User: Fold these one by one.
Assistant:
Number 1:
Amino acid sequence: MQKLSLKSSLPWTGEALAIEELGKVTYRNSPVLIGVVGKADAGKTTYLAMLFTLLLRGGMFKDFSFAGTKTIQAWDKLYKTLQVQQAGGVVFPDPTPSQYIRFLHLALRNRANRLNDILLSDIAGEAFSLWATNRNDVNAENARWIYQNASAFILFIDCEDLIKRKSLAKNDILDMAQMLRHDLRSRPVITVWSKSDKKHDVHPKILEKLKDELSEFFPVFAEIDISNFSYDDPDILVHKNNISVLDFLLSKIFVPVGSDIIIEDDNKDKDIFLKFKNL
């Protein structure tokens, strides 16, 4: 008896997109690519998980509303990692494997009802660490691709690493920032202090030095504190700032190229995202 194949023949899987799959988005528009930059374990993938969790719970961007995604399965897997487990506690997302370069997609509708595609990168921090010391390193190809093609960048500063490794961690961040600015042109950067619920334990001189140098590096610069642990409800670090990261970049760099697509507004009573999740 021949075994039936259960593999779908549909071109859409809902998983994160590889480079060769970006045509699933670019066929209709020129997307904005956000480069999520930082060393390993700096909180990049957890930030993506928190962003989706907040959107799922009704969080809104300032000038955009959710209009769909081609990577819902990938987002959902990230979301589930932040759910409280039966045994208690939260299991944060696994680090992104070093060979991966993948993208998560958001379709956002602006106030003029025009559809805009956003891609957020998710690659291993090891590639950025190699790139930060040698931009031509053969093992830093993923980081180079992101740097060459992104429209804006989120640079992660790991407060926990600054507490543990102090000046060594600071120098690693400055090396990465130096590489980021060498051909930055007018692309905006927002510096994200991750795990900032511990920021008060970072040596004040390290904080001051980093702030001063980073503000000189980038002509369009902003910084923000985020955390995944809430002490209040709502907690600004968690519930507001995680969304404000992307809000800032969208406000600075979003320039539609070509013809945007006007979608039918047949969902006025309920956000498409919430409808998909049956909330």
Number 2:
Amino acid sequence: MGAVRAGFLLQLRFYRHYPDLLVPLLTAPLYSGIFTMIMSYNGRTDLAGAASLAPFYMSLWWFALFSGGWIIQTDRWEGTLEYVVAAPADFAAVVFGRIGATTLPGFAAFAETWLFARYVLGSDVTVRHWGVFLGSFALTLLAMAATALLMAAAFVLARNAVTLSNSISFPFYVLGGILVPVALLPGWLQPLSKAVFLSWSADLLRAGIATAPVPHPIRGMVMIALLGAVALAAGHTLLRRILGQVRSTGELGLR
């Protein structure tokens, strides 16, 4: 836990010195307006709430995944990656702590998209099921950080981590059903979405602002926690194996 805490505090210092890392907070309201107008123009006002929440997920994904990728790349460019890897602290724990700090701006992203949707766009985004909403929100942050740790393991081997981040973002947006519910996707695509925690999270958050009772809330939260735990275990194991390999071959700085 000490390594996680140290990584968390270190990343907070990065935000203080590099405020440009918070750019998604500027674009989230714009996306919210665009998505809501698209739904309204096509007569799908029932999806206005989902359209309002989509920019929050996009911002959270950007913060966790892109910052996770930049953590590795920045350490490479600064020539500090070898020192961090060689330190006695668990490298995966340090990276997870830093990624955990990158999810904090997700609170601000949600607050501004919610306020913009409710008071500027006039969308019905009133939270009606607080237990489900808060529970799924907290689990979503943890699962997002765990998924980012798994991707960070791949970034150790990838010379251009940013390109990889750009390539996988929009497929996850679609499979996660963050803008359009998974039920409206092609039938052959829907089973794949069950393996993406975003789909369970988006369903619960949307249900949290709906007037109807939430269907199977415990199952949804268990699936978010389970997929997050799998990503955390896989990321930690993969990162340790990769580091063990590059330490033995001395290729860490060359990859």
